[in-house]
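pasting for ref. prot 1 ->
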Amino acid sequence: MTDDALDRLIAAEQDERRRIALFLHDGPVQNLSGIALMLDAAIHSIETGKLDDALSVLGTALDRHRATIRELRDLSFALEPVVLRDQGFGPALSALAEQIGTTNQIRIDLDIEDAERVGETAQVAIYTIIRELLDQAIRRGPPTRITVTMRVTDDGGLETCVADDAEPERRRRSFEAVEERVKQLHGTIRVESDEAGTKVVVVLPSYATRR
């Protein structure tokens, strides 16, 4: 891998850390602060003999606590899936597709035989791009079907296509985060939308398939 490509991967990882920090601050941290206030209110209700009020507040706090645990569990899986570390890139994508497909009751087809050609240093970045595109498709839809294909190009690069039949996204800014990530990796991205849905094609240079 060239120094330029490595620098781009490092920059992409730094951007990912910033995104995660923002998510933690605006999501789980705020939720936990709210739960703490609820518990204070429940204690006050108990001390003043308002047991029904205390039970109601505790029930709400418990629901929010469980939701926060799910958010943190999903984040942990996305950051470093155990299957990515232990079994490889292809199985990690299959596990991601199964998780998202089961949760949202949609069909996700994978054609990723070339996934095992992805270099180790590029795997996290590409995995993150695919995850974000899947999340976008879910937010636009819900779709009934998503297809993910990966192939090595004639010049040794890597082409990844995520296509869905959800409501087409007309706002270009919805893809700005993914576009910036691809740009940092010295790749290209093409978004095609019509009445049938949306197709996003990401092409990374040959370093992405070098180990």
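and prot 2 ->
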Amino acid sequence: MAASGTLKAGLRHASKWVFAAADFPFTPRPGPRILIYHQIAAGMGRQMEVSREAFEYQLGWLLDNGSIVTLDEALERAGEPESHKLFVLTFDDGYRDVYEQAFPLLREAEVPFLVYVTTGPVEAGRGEDEEGRDDPLSWQQLTSMAGAGATIGSHTHTHPDLRRLSHSEIERELEESDALIMRNLGIKSEHFCYPYGYWSEAAHPLVADRYRTATLGGGPAVTAATDPHLIHRVPIQLSDTKLFFKRKMTSGMVLEEKVRRRISGYQGI
């Protein structure tokens, strides 16, 4: 099992070099960079987390090379000549380690960030991992972060793939999520994130009617012409070394995202 994991990590690292090399002929990608984070220093070894050391480095690099702004500001300024130096930090799902590991650094740096919270696990108070490494944020922690300037957005109630739900099921997911955020935080959710980053044709009109913005997974650059309900982001992963992170912040490592989409079978926007 260990040998298999080592081989898989080696293949992933080699593929990262191919993706990074494929980007070199291209000029910097236009528009703001909307970054996707999930877990920080969770210790689960999943690609959706980064270490605290990596996050500290990445935060410092972003501050040295541009400005960390809110999603609203990034969209307003997307047409500016140097909008590629605008960065938005988004955290999907709402894991407790975001509060314990990332929040102290973000608060010290006095930068805005956006948490897309899945309300079901918050209500349950526990994740699926027996060791508690994927435990959700509490409403108290979310209140604390919101009080420090964080934006809280909706990520549905149970995190389903919206492409597989009926109109009424989608409506119920959105309504329950928004109601819990309002009841516990006193906040009207204005921003939405599609679970798994997968756009749903059936959900789109409902989402567009409820929220000012909606974000997806990786995809085309954000420009002044971007539909605010079809915003693509840049996934930050465990395997992103300093070099790969910087490549993602410049030309985007677009080939990596195209391959990931093909492997996952996602044919959406």
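Residues 28-264 form a domain with the TIM Barrel fold (CATH 3.20.20.370).
The chain has one domain: 28-264.
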